[in-house]
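[Automated response] Your request has been received and processed.

Submitted sequence:
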Amino acid sequence: MFSVWMSGFESLFVLKDILYLIAGVGFGMFFGLVPGLGGTTGLTLLIPLTFGLDTATSIALSAGVMGGVPMGGSISAILINSPGSAPNAATCLDGFPLAQKGKGGLAIGAAASANAMGGIIGTFALLLIIPLARDIVLSFGPPQFFLMCVFGLVIVSLTSSGKLLEGLLVGMFGLMISTIGYDAVTGDIRYAFGIPYLWNGIPLVPALIGLFPLTQMIRLFVSGGTIAKTANAFKFSETFEGVKATFTNWKVVLSGSLVGTLIGAIPGVGGVVAAFASYSIISQTGNDRETYGHGNIKGVIAPEAAINAKDCSTLIPTLAFGIPGSAEMAVFLAILILHGVDPGPLLMIDHQDLIYELIWALVAACVFASIAGVLLAKYLAKVTVIRANVLVPLVISISVLGSWAVNQNIGNIVISLAFAVIGYIITVIDYPRLPLVISLILGGEIERYYDQSIMISGGTPRIFIEDPVSMFLLSMIVIAILYLPAAFIVKRLFKRSKELPGTV
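Generated structure:
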């Protein structure tokens, strides 16, 4: 097995492949940086360019794009509160507050190093998981997916501690919006009001563009000035402080990487869930929970590590069963088939060299993208000191263009503008946006998996407790639900014991 690992590693040391890998990283960072484009669009545009390339070079180019997109997306998420790709929305929660404090370089340095470390840890975890890939993928069906999505919603509710009621209200609003369009099981059209554009529901990327960059630009236009409120927005030394912070918080990196690896191995769950799950877990397990959302560096490290680790483990269902774990992997699957590589169980036996070459190429792409992010941070962070009258129209133009570019539909722009208004109202009344984002992502999935599970079981809910995986997920949901009441009771008892006479 070790010899196969090394053969894939040695295949990287071909000058042509390295050059294409680096070119792919640059291409991917650009598509990650522009809101609404992302890795799926980048890979799609690359398909014609791979026609004249051999398989190994095409893999290197594709891996470069997939490794570069997260870094580009984190930069825009941190500097202008605009997630270049959907998973980077989690990075906005603490990355942008750091930029507002004039610490954009610190956040970019942490994101860059967390990207690289997450990719490396995820790779080694993937190398250990590959022999068990079949059992992992086949252990999940509609009941397990349903419980996984419910667990995600419960975990996110914990991140609104201190504003639990507000978070629940926003989450319920998001679940209501997620029911717009086709019912995935019955085919009925709901709440579309005769508008064909809404038949497929609310598209995620335009909604995120509205909730984050456009909302922030409205706030910046109203307040005026610049994003960074201090004058030290581009100290180069802070970038290396961010790198140092990643290694100091190695437990956060490890936690995020493992969460990303496990979630990425499940088809259809995606990087958004991995990033937000990692953020939710880390924000609820420390003694500094009240600092998250206000510029805690761990809130940047955790989701960024999960995003890149997820990219590695998403290869498991894609390569082992031909089941793309994400839209990005679906396009990559098309590139492989174009070059005569048929994903499936036989690929794991007959073409292990290609698999390990792709894995190591992804790691190299993560490292190259991280180095580029660190070196460019000094210049990119200057965005935070551009005055509102210049930055606002520029970001709005790019965001609107990115929203339209998702599928060249003018309706996307309307959705983005509508969610910009919603996002602005939510921020004005000081309600959390995170439950709305997660509800939009998981609402339709929860409904579909529940209906499928009930149909499979013949109408009985016993299907959710009939196997070990379901029981484990159900127990995790119960523990998460009881966490807040238990923590509140313990806190009250501890406070009362300190107030009793004769106690220290």
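Summary generated for your ticket: The chain has two domains: 2-465, 467-504. Residues 468-499 form the longest helix (32 residues).
If you did not submit this request, please reply to this message.
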